[in-house]
Specification:
The protein is mainly alpha-helical and 279 residues long. It has three domains: 10-78, no CATH class; 81-160; 181-279. The chain contains 13 helices and no strands. It starts with 9 loop residues before the first helix and ends with a helix.
């Protein structure tokens, strides 16, 4: 495999290697992730402080926001692929758009938004409203495509899950097109595609949406054959997880799907490999 660098030049590589090695102490081990996952809200700050996120004991969300911001700034400083790094920030715009669209169509309360996007949430919401009202909107590409698709699908599938399925599909297809061409990123996106396809699949099954909706919003390039997901239409919900027992992700993947189908959707973010593979 070719060296998976997004950097160029000996000096920059040496510098970036030193910086990244310095950040390794902040990587969460599987045990750290599980600890954060299991702890209650009142103890989250203390746990974050214990694993190295300074200030987390006072304001855990702020500590994580600062850590994310610093990481994004480092990648932007070192990367020679501006479109790729811009697309990483675009993810936060898409997440905020999903929050707004659920509020717009389903009267869900906007309790919080995500920082680190390319546009301030309030400005983003105003532009989305313009688009929904048929007016000219200045939105990050390709968000207008995603919003129009959501607007169309809601008439057939009136559920907030449809917003997530559509917007994830549009964003990650755009991310794929922005990726640098290298063996590393091809492999990287294969894991991402499997992850997003699994999330969409679980959402569809749990919401009792027709399984034929899956191929329309599935991502190409993953290692799990899409036919594997289609086969689930012949099974009851309890039998579905074992359908994936022979994938390269192993028994842990089976457990994740089971937890997701049981309603613990946050378990899907523990998809094998995504600690290192996803943005």
């Amino acid at each position: 495999m070719k060296t998976p660098l997004i950097f160029e030049g000996d000096t920059r590589y040496t510098y970036s290697s030193g910086v990244i090695r310095g950040l390794e102490n902040f990587l969460l081990t599987p045990g750290d992730y599980q600890k954060v996952f299991d702890v209650g809200d009142e103890q989250l700050g203390t746990v974050l402080a214990e694993i190295g996120y300074g200030g987390g004991e006072h304001n855990p969300e702020h500590a994580l926001d600062i850590a994310t911001q610093q990481l994004l700034e480092l990648v932007e400083k070192l990367s020679r692929h501006k479109q790729f790094t811009d697309t990483i920030r675009l993810k936060y715009d898409f997440k905020n758009a999903q929050i707004y669209l659920k509020a717009h169509f389903f009267d869900e309360k906007i309790s919080s938004t995500l920082p680190n996007g390319t546009i301030e949430p309030d400005s983003l919401f105003a532009e989305i409203e313009n688009l929904l009202n048929g007016e000219i909107a200045k939105l990050p590409k390709p968000m207008d495509e995603g919003i129009e698709k959501v607007n169309n699908i809601i008439s057939s599938f009136n559920t907030p899950v449809a917003v997530d399925i559509v917007m994830d599909n549009v964003y990650y297809r755009y991310l794929h097109d922005a990726l640098p061409q290298s063996e590393y990123f091809i492999r990287w996106f294969a894991i991402v595609a499997d992850w997003i396809n699994t999330k969409s699949f679980v959402r569809i099954v749990r919401s009792q949406l027709p399984i034929n909706l899956f191929p329309e919003y599935a991502l190409d390039g993953g290692d799990i054959p899409l036919d594997k997901f289609y086969q689930s239409s012949e099974l009851d919900t309890e039998s579905i997880p074992m359908l994936f027992a022979n994938t390269e992700y192993g028994n842990k993947f089976v457990d994740i799907i089971k937890h997701g189908l049981d309603g613990k959707l946050s378990s899907l973010d523990f998809f094998p490999g995504t600690t290192y593979a996803t943005v």
